[in-house]
Amino acid sequence: MPNETLTHRSHPKLWRAYNIVKRFFSNPINILLIACLIVLGYLMVYPLVQIVDTTFSVARGEAKKLGLEVGAFTTFYWKRCFAERVSKALFYTPFVNSLTVAFFSTFFSVLIGTLVAWLLVRSDIPGKKFFNLAILIPYMLPSWCKAKAWISLFRVSSMAGYSGLLESIGVPVPEWLAYGPVPIICVFTMHYYAYAFLLVSGALKSVNSELEEMGEITGASRLKILMKITFPLVLPTILSATILTMSKTMGGYTICNYLGEPAGFKNLSVILKDYISGTKYQNVGYVVALITIAISALTLLLNQIAVGKRRSYATIGGKGGRTTPAKLGKSRIPITAILFCFTVIMNLMPMLVLFFETFMRFPGSYSLSNFTVHYWIGKSDPNIYEGEAGVLLNPRFYRALWSTVKMTFLTSIFATCIGQLVGYMTSRLRGKPAGNLLEQVVFVPYLMPSLAFGAIYLAMFATGKVPLGDTGKFLIPSLYGTFALVILVSTVKNIPFAARTGQANMMQISTELEEAAQIEGLGFWKRFTKIVVPLAKNGFMSSFMVTFIGVIKELDLILLVVTPRDYNLPLLAYQYKNSFQEPYSNVITIVLFVIVLGTYLIANKFFEIDLTGGMGG
Predict the structure, then answer these.
(1) Burial environment of residue 482 by CB neighbours within 10 A (0 to 12, 13 to 18, 19 or more)
(2) What is the three-state SS of 296-350?
(3) E strand or H helix at 467, and its extent?
(4) Rounded distance between C-alpha atoms, residue 21 and residue 43, angstroms
(5) Which of 336, 346, 306 is nearest to 203 (CA)?
(6) Long-range contacts: 55-62, Cβ < 8 Å, 24+?
(7) Helix crossing, 181-204 with 93-122: angle to 10°?
(8) Is the CB of residue 249 less than 8 Å from the CB of residue 192?
(9) pLDDT: is 521 or 315 the higher one?
(10) What is the pLDDT of residues 207-260, one digit of tens each?
(11) CA 453, 455, 458 angle in degrees (round to 5)?
């Protein structure tokens, strides 16, 4: 290589470019960045490209009808979705249904979650520890558990063949309250108000109460202080909760399937599932998936705008800030009683109803003579559900339990480790184009409906890719029908939130510590393992717990990916439900809840993991 002076004088532009590249690759973070962008780009962006390509390609089932070769370009699936006679039933009606459910569910969820967050964070209401834990229960439970509880409570014999709890004791239940949009909105609200609560409560804790006290000094009423001071300060977080909740409710499948199917009420997710898992016009399902992705992308953009506005309030929680609970005065006892009743009805009642139904031999009959423990510990009886043994004596349960433990633990470990690493890079590259690019790439899986995401991965890894010479092996092997594919899909889908919690965790670790170690001569990996990793331990455990709760209750994502030998507890409960063996499904639901709650309590005791502290702020 020429010496520096000669190169600098002879080829100044080339030498400048050489120095830029050299400096870039001398930073280990940049090398990690490139590796992450390549791997995550393939695992996250490529599936989106695949979905787009699929919607414009002729599938084998329609090739003969269209007179085109398989894989040829076509707009048939888009026209079928938007411009044919079936379009109203296929897209427009489900789209309106999705918007209606999402709007009202989000409105009530955020309203209730915000009010409860203010009561538990900013007021002197008693029993905060109990309420915080009780309100966390909906976040721990799968959404379909509440749908099952709703059916058990409001089921009507005219539509289901036998009565629910209310109808059995003589309380008339209208059909619109048992199935259709109203119960779907109610169940979504029961599930996602806890999500809004966690986001808003974290933001409220950062607000200095001196601002509210100044309002009191000027003679402002409590309501005026709330409307003019408190809520405007956390408005970006409330907007963020609104947008994220709407995105989640737009893509909800299981609740709409459970509560909407008997009434013929379908949203976009149900249409997506019907087509993707069907035998005809599967690519129409991917068109619907792209539409839901576009909606999610729009909500994400709005969320980023809302969070961006949040930065203007960054000084409200500085040094010397304090929190003084607002006094509820004479209304303290009535408000506490109302909140207690609300908590019992919204959080504890669903589990109590499901638990009660696991002891009823015949559904719809709630007399003591119908009491049984068969569905828990009963041996095979040909007179009860074709001889299906009780869950705790059933080998199927233990296979599903072991599969659940493996999937949840491995996914949580992988997603959390990757999330912490990505969070470290985005926090150290914050404000730079490379860091912003990595953030956008990592969040792509969040935009995709879980069902479509699983279906695309099923197609991506159906065959091996990049053959290694004549060995018959591939650089990217086929994972079709393997447990590894389930782990991969679950991990990639959960990386976005793991990366966000990882970024928040790493931003709390000052770069000055690493800079001091670098001055002492420590290399990058020693600095990372000796300084960053130990300091990030608590954040790692919190991220692991959040991921654990999300994975263990996941159903939509793995519905099309998991094989019969690897089914987990949520899928087993779903199979029991579809086989009209509701009591067994209810037992599985209770067991899932016990596992999640027990794991959280253990993590809270030994690792001081407290999700009741909120996720916002």
Answers:
(1) middle
(2) HHHHHHHHHHHHHHHHHHHHHHCCCCCCCCECCHHHHHHHHHHHHHHHHHHHHHH
(3) strand 465-467
(4) 27
(5) 306
(6) 55/283, 55/286, 55/287, 55/290, 57/283, 59/281, 59/282, 59/283, 61/279, 61/280, 61/281, 61/282, 62/280, 62/281, 62/283
(7) 40
(8) yes
(9) 521
(10) 766 776 777 777 777 777 777 777 777 877 788 788 878 878 887 788 898 899
(11) 110
CB atoms within 10 A of CB 152: 21
Asked, for residue 311, whether it belongs to a domain, the answer is no
Cα angle 550, 551, 556; round to 5: 95
Q: How many domains does the chain have?
A: 1
| Three-state secondary-structure class, residue 474 | strand
Partner residues linked to 55 by β-bridges: none
Of 171, 136, 137, 180, whose CA–CA distance to 153 is shortest? 171
Within-domain flag for 65? no
| Token couple for 155 | 């089921």
316, two tokens: 């409200």
- CA torsion, ordered 364, 252, 616, 598, to nearest 10 deg: 40
The C-alpha atoms of residue 255 and residue 241 are separated, in whole angstroms, by: 20
Alpha carbon distance 372, 385 (integer Å): 14
Residue 35 has a CB neighbour count (10 Å cut-off) of: 10
The token pair at 95 is 């789209």
3-state DSSP of 148-189: HHHHHHHCCHHHHCCCCHHHHCCCCCCHHHHCCHHHHHHHHH
Which tokens is 511 given? 């770069």
Other Cβ atoms closer than 10 A to 205: 17
Domain that includes residue 393, residue range: 26-55+389-617
pLDDT tens-digit map of 60-116: 888 888 888 988 999 999 999 999 888 998 899 999 999 999 999 999 999 999 999
- Structural domain includes residue 411: yes
pLDDT at 310: 47
More confident residue, 50 or 180: 180
Q: How far is CA 429 from CA 27, 414, 422, 503, 518, in A?
A: 12, 22, 10, 11, 18
Lowest mean pLDDT: which of 16-30, 309-323, 330-344, 549-563?
Answer: 309-323
Of the candidates 601, 604, 576, 600, the one whose C-alpha atom is nearest the C-alpha of residue 148 is: 576
**Distance (Å, whole) CA 229 – CA 212:** 7
94 part of a folded domain: no
What CATH number is associated with residue 588? 1.10.3720.10
So what's the pLDDT on residue 8? 58
The answer to whether the CB of 439 falls within 8 A of the CB of 495 is no
* CB contact burial 296-323 (16+ within 10 A = b; e otherwise): bbebbebbeebeeebeebeeeeeeeeeb
Q: Are 607 and 541 in contact (CB under 8 A)?
A: yes
Q: Which two tokens stand for residue 335?
A: 């408000």
Structure tokens at 113: 């979650």
Q: How far apart are CA 180 and CA 182, in angstroms?
A: 6
| Torsion of the alpha carbons at 246, 252, 255 and 260, rounded to the nearest 10 | 90
Nearest to 95 by CA among 288, 298, 294, 297: 288
